[in-house]
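>> received
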Amino acid sequence: MSSLFFVLGPWYDFPNMAGELMTKDDLMAYLRLSRGTINRLMKQGLPHIKLDRRVLFRKPDIDAYLESKIVKNKPQGKARKI
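>> returned
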């Protein structure tokens, strides 16, 4: 039985929920970021769910957020003459 079962209750072990929801500690490990960075990103729009004092993250939402942050290199134009 997962450790989140005790935090979130029996509904956490439903098949559709078990793989999607992450705690802040799970997200820190997934992104390899500190708690402070996660908190800052939450203030800047990182999608999260607040249930009372619990903060949860849905993996598909996090993956979509990361995809939206990909920086694509723009093709460089002609070099300027100096």
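>> Residues 20-68 form a domain with the Arc Repressor Mutant, subunit A fold (CATH 1.10.10).
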